[in-house]
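Design request, tokens follow.
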């Protein structure tokens, strides 16, 4: 499952970060690494952006970034 498919209020664990180049690097720089817990706080009406809590801080992700994060 991808992070963009997770419903608000759910907590998931990062399984794998897909993608290459700058997008992958940006995701890692935000602290999203394998085995990290992510709590999905809110999803905008059109699905973009997605507000999450990672490592005790709040973060907004674009739908294309969330599509590169595989979770379980």
């Amino acid at each position: 499952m991808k992070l963009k498919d997770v419903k608000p209020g759910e907590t998931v664990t990062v399984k794998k970060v897909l993608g290459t180049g700058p997008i992958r690097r940006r995701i890692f720089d935000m602290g999203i690494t394998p085995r990290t817990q992510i709590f999905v706080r809110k999803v905008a009406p059109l699905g973009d952006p997605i507000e999450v809590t990672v490592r005790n801080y709040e973060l907004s992700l674009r739908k294309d970034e969330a599509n590169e994060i595989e979770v379980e």
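Comment from the thread starter after seeing the answer: thanks! The chain has a mean pLDDT of 92.
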